[in-house]
């Protein structure tokens, strides 16, 4: 029997029982749609975490002062001041795997523009900070090394600060604001970065040269932290080791001494968050996979019932010349048509529901090709696998008994 | 084909083993049917009628003896070869019509042709339409069985039996579910196919009334042929139909 005949026979048989065919399909439709939508949610959240971290600068290295022992007394955490410009210069000079380094001297204060004021953070940084943190200047310009050298009273404003100090929408560039009592000229604005993955507003910030903060506000030679960037994400570890060596030298630590600073990279954080969302994806896929298997059992169930129900039809087909293999193939093709059609509808439904989820709930989703291919292959396989047994049962019927079956 | 004989049965025996007992349904049946004959096979229940029908229809094989259909010895064939033989040589007509539900008359008639790989879609359609034409149902091609009367359904079934141009039509109590008038209509159609188109018909029945329309009667009892006689004055189903009192109108 030709393939076309076979498909036509199967299609006509399905046509006679549209509702039953649809109900059988439903299991597969829901299974496939669930797999695609679930994987899309998992992948979407994974990607959004990764892109957020990427925004922060995934090759970023943070150097913080840490506790130290002084005369037997442990001096605590970040309050300890050990980072100076000498460290920054040493890293700049000697580290091979570091592409940029910037100190951070920050202070909190009240930013004032005329009658408006806003409590915010003033961060004193070097021009290289923009590269390290992936900051971009929206309007105006950034400050230069010359501004750093002269401790110039210039600043760049983050979006939140602009919103609060310049609510009418006028451009702040060129205006002079005050931080506490220090007047600062606004030379630029920062492109919005939004919330960090920890819910911190990254736009509530004013940037100035670090010398301005050190000399004009804090009167200190120390920094709260130093930011550096590795030449690449993969070089993070090498850069970290290098920085540790350099800082131990500049801090004149003996081999037996503990580090009085700590060096952190983003890599571990990325790994932790990614593995969490991978776990989520696996979990969701497993749940959806179960529904796919149930869909397959649904196919087997209905096909099996339909073999019993259609015993007379099978007997008739045999009496007019259908061979056992023709009956087997007919039922198998019916099962495959059901599962493939169900699979296609499921793919469309899955993609649609992923889009709907993004639109209504605002969850990021990412429909991956692999999930479409995987679920489709699984459902086609399900059709063959669960369709085969009933089909074989049908093909083994005795035509005489099948014809007389009541 | 040997001397125009469509069926040759030589000492056909069929035994069924039921547990420890052996039931002998046919105990040596022999007869021939020539091309163009209209034979009824009669017998009460338990006479081996159904067993013989299954063997004639190539649904079953004899335990002993030879059965030649159109010169082919059926006893030596495999299941698949039997299926092919049923498709090419035999047109079945059943008591319960056995039409596929929710399927148009035309598609029902086309069904056997799907198992005949030599035909194109167009040939299949044309042949099916031709077969419907010959049972005078060409105007009902789109109707499903539930939209047709019992007689019309049986005519669709006859068209389905004719569509593959078989050497023999094998009817199993084909009028058993029909009233007298419709039975006569079906028999008139059978006679027409037999007389005008020369179709060989083997009609299994237990009604003597129906047997009177055929040209020959084979009587079975207890698995043996007890009578095999030519019917000298074949009754015309058309005339019988005309002689029936007119259908009562309310």
From TrEMBL, chain A:
ABC3 transporter permease C-terminal domain location: 286-399
Pfam family, one: MacB_PCD
Domain of life: Bacteria
InterPro entries: ABC3_permease_C, MacB_PCD, Macrolide_Exporter_MacB
Cell compartment(s), UniProt: Cell membrane
Annotated coiled-coil segments of the chain: none
Family indicated by similarity: Belongs to the ABC-4 integral membrane protein family.
Protein name per its UniProtKB record: ABC transporter permease
Native source species: Chitinophaga hostae
